[in-house]
Amino acid sequence: xxxxxxxxxxxxxxxxxxxxxxxxxxxxxxxxxxxxxxxxxxxxxxxxxxxxxxxxxxxxxxxxxxxxxxxxxxxxxxxxxxxxxxxxxxxxxxxxxxxxxxxxxxxxxxxxxxxxxxxxxxxxxxxxxxxxxxxxxxxxxxxxxxxxxxxxxxxxxxxxxxxxxxxxxxxxxxxxxxxxxxxxxxxxxxxxxxxxxxxxxxxxxxxxxxxxxxxxxxxxxxxxxxxxxxxxxxxxxxxxxxxxxxxxxxxxxxxxxxxxxxxxxxxxxxxxxxxxxxxxxxxxxxxxxxxxxxxxxxxxxxxxxxxxxxxxxxxxxxxxxxxxxxxxxxxxxxxxxxxxxxxxxxxxxxxxxxxxxxxxxxxxxxxxxxxxxxxxxxxxxxx
Length: 383
Prior knowledge:
The protein is of the alpha+beta class and 383 residues long. Helices cover 68% and strands 9% of the residues. Strand 1 (269-273), helix 9 (284-304) and strand 2 (310-316) form a beta-alpha-beta unit. It catalyses: ATP + protein L-histidine = ADP + protein N-phospho-L-histidine.
C-alpha cells in the first residue's frame, strides 16, 4: 500500500479524465460531421492537441500551454474566412482551462504563470467569437470565461497552499539549523574550556615534572582537533542554503529510556544496540541527532500509525557507518504524509542529519509498515 497506492489512484484519475475528454471529443466530432461538414478539422485538431498537451503538462508545464494556445489561435485564424460552426471546440477549451490550473499552481515566477493564463483566456474568447459568431458565440464567450475564472481560482488557491507549505518547511529547516548551531556552540565552548584548563595544568606540572608535559600537550592537541571539527560543522550549518529540543550530553541510555517510555503507552517496542556502538564511539552532536531522530520517529508512529503491531529500533555500526533504523509493523501510517512528501517533523530530521554529513530516508515497507533510516559517517567521538 502506501506510496504505491497513492500513485495508482493518481494515475487512475488521470486515465479517467483523459478517457472522458476523449469520449466527449468523439461526440463533438460526430456532431460537427453532421452539421459543419468539412469544418470538422477544427474540432478534431483542436481536441487532439488539447489531449496531447494534457498528457505532457507535467514534463512541459510552460511548453504544453504555449503550444496549445498557438494551435488554438492558428485554428481560429483559419476559421475566420469560413462559415461559422456550431461548436467552437469544447475539448480544446476544457484543456486550456485545465492547463490554466496547472500553470497557476506550478509555473514560476508568478508573472509568467499569469501571462500564460491570460493568453489561454484570450485564445478561448477568440475561438468563441470568431469561429461561431452571432448570438451563440456570445453565449460560448460567457461560458468559457466562467470556466476559465473557476480554473484560475482553483490554480491560485493551490499555489497559495503550496507556498504556505514551502514557507513552513523553510521555517522548520531554519529552526533546526539554529538549534543544531546552539548545540555545536556549546560543544565548542566545552572543548575550548578543556584546552584552557589542560594548558594551565601543563604549565604548573611542567615546573615540577617536565616529563609530564608531553602527555598534557597531546591531550591539548586532541581537544583542539575536536573543537576544530565541531567548529567546522557549526559553520557548515550556519552557511546552509536549504537546508530539538535536546542539549549535548545524550547517552545511549537516554535512547533506551525513550523507547521504554514509548512502549509503556503505545505499541510494544524494542531497542537493540549493535556490536561496536558505545557512548565513546559517537561524537556528541551525532548522539544528540540520533536522539532527535528516534524521538521524532516514535512520535510519528503514535500520531500517524497508532494501530501498529510493534516497533523495532536498532542502532548498528556497519563498515564506516553509524545507522539508526526505526520500523513499525502492521500499519503504513497516514497516506497524506506520503502524498505531501512527509510532515514537517520529517523535514526537520532530514535537515539535521544532512547538516552532519549523513542521510535520512523514510517510506513504506513491504510488510505494510513504515521505516526511517538515518546514517552517519563513522567518526570516533570523545567524551
